[in-house]
Design goal:
By secondary structure, the chain is of the alpha+beta class. It is built from ten helices and twelve strands. Helix 3 runs antiparallel to helix 8, helix 5 packs antiparallel against helix 7 and helix 7 packs antiparallel against helix 8. Strands 1, 2, 3, 4, 5 and 6 form a six-stranded antiparallel sheet that branches. A two-stranded antiparallel ribbon has the order 7-10. The protein has a two-stranded antiparallel sheet with strand order 8-9. The protein is globular, with a radius of gyration of 20 Å. It folds into two domains: about 70 residues, Phosphorylase Kinase, domain 1, CATH 3.30.200; about 240 residues, Transferase(Phosphotransferase), domain 1.
């Protein structure tokens, strides 16, 4: 066994229930002919010990049920679990490089370079798209955030922590549920009504993209008044970046300009589309995957020989998705924080992207 590591706390929008308990540890173990395992981790592979009752029990059951259904290289792999009196134990394959949150925001960590950020964005998008589009019934994660994206030896992303996930049958438009998740990542329509859809996850993923672009935390009380929320701070800067290709105020200054302008523009467009207030106008994760995957194809000239800022920025394979993103990101300046929903009349006849 290795030394236990610190865990990340999930925020509950409601008040915590009396008696609710969760302890998160990391212990590294070598078993099964050299296979490296972890008994629940908050960083890397995971070991979670939960109280046997209340919310902890529900999360444990949900995680075992859902993670047992899914198999994807960008989702954590459950090896086994154990129930002993009041304790609940989950065992995953060990993931060596902690979480995206730790590597991006951790004190004293080296600056995460742009190619690594793109890799993390693309991998986590693939994992989330698998849950939404390739699982039957569909799976809504409900707690997408940077501390739930684990990183392996090569900084490939694995989406983790399915304790709040919900199943959605194909004929169900939304799931009504108690509002839970993490402040700074919650979609406005979910926070205000409790109606959960895949687009709630898409909004949360957009916040993750903003973290990778800006290097800022979703909520930072040390920022000036009015700038604490990453989403609200970034909205006017996203407009400027898209309209004028001016990235300097938005992009993480620690990158010191070491990024490809075309790649940055695409990720900014994707983030802007994902965090739209109108859930219906957010992209599906499959669309996001196609855009981000194109950025990781190192042997493909994505600029088609044209300098950034010229008219032929995108290769033909992704033109349709890029145009949809442009419509979503450029199509409206309705970034007011009061716009949570649209009337049925305004939505009628509009395709739900």
């Amino acid at each position: 066994d290795g030394e236990p590591g610190a865990g990340s706390e999930r925020g509950d929008v409601g008040r915590p229930q009396r008696g609710q308990q969760q302890v998160v540890l990391v212990r590294r173990a070598v078993r099964d002919h050299g296979r490296v395992l972890a008994r629940q981790a908050a960083r890397g592979g995971r070991v979670r010990l939960k109280g046997g009752g209340g919310q902890g029990e529900r999360e444990f059951q949900a995680e075992v049920e859902i993670i047992s259904r899914v198999h994807h290289r960008h989702l954590v792999s459950l090896v086994g679990y154990c129930i002993s009196e009041d304790h609940r134990l989950l065992v995953y394959d060990f993931v060596a490089n902690d979480t995206m949150h730790h590597n991006l925001h951790g004190r004293g960590r080296p600056v995460m370079d742009w190619p690594t950020r793109v890799k993390i964005a693309a991998g986590s998008a693939r994992g989330l798209a698998y849950l939404h589009e390739d699982c039957h019934p569909r799976i809504i994660h409900r707690d997408i955030k940077s501390s739930n994206i684990l990183l392996d030896d090569n900084f490939e992303a694995q989406v983790a922590d399915f304790g709040l996930a919900r199943l959605a049958e194909n004929d169900v438009t939304h799931v009504s549920t108690r509002v839970m998740g993490t402040f700074g990542y919650l979609a406005p329509e979910y926070a205000s009504t409790g109606k959960l859809t895949e687009k709630s996850d898409v909004f949360s993923f957009g916040v993750v993209l903003l973290e990778l672009i800006t290097g800022r935390k979703p909520v930072d009380s040390s920022r000036p008044l009015g700038d604490e929320s990453l989403v609200e701070w970034s909205r006017p800067l996203l407009n400027r970046a898209i309209d004028e290709q001016e990235f300097e105020e938005l992009v993480d200054p620690r990158l010191d300009g070491n990024y490809d302008d075309v790649e940055m523009f695409r990720v900014i467009e994707a983030a802007a589309a994902c965090i739209r207030h109108s859930a219906a106008r957010r992209p599906k994760m499959g669309q996001v995957v196609r855009i981000l995957d194109s950025l990781t194809l190192n042997d493909v000239d994505l600029t088609n020989g044209v300098q950034p800022g010229k008219s032929q920025m995108f290769n033909a394979a992704n033109t349709a998705d890029i145009r949809q993103f442009q419509r979503m990101a450029f199509g409206s300046q309705d970034f007011s924080s009061s716009e949570y929903t649209q009337s049925k009349a305004s939505l009628s006849g509009r395709r739900d992207l």
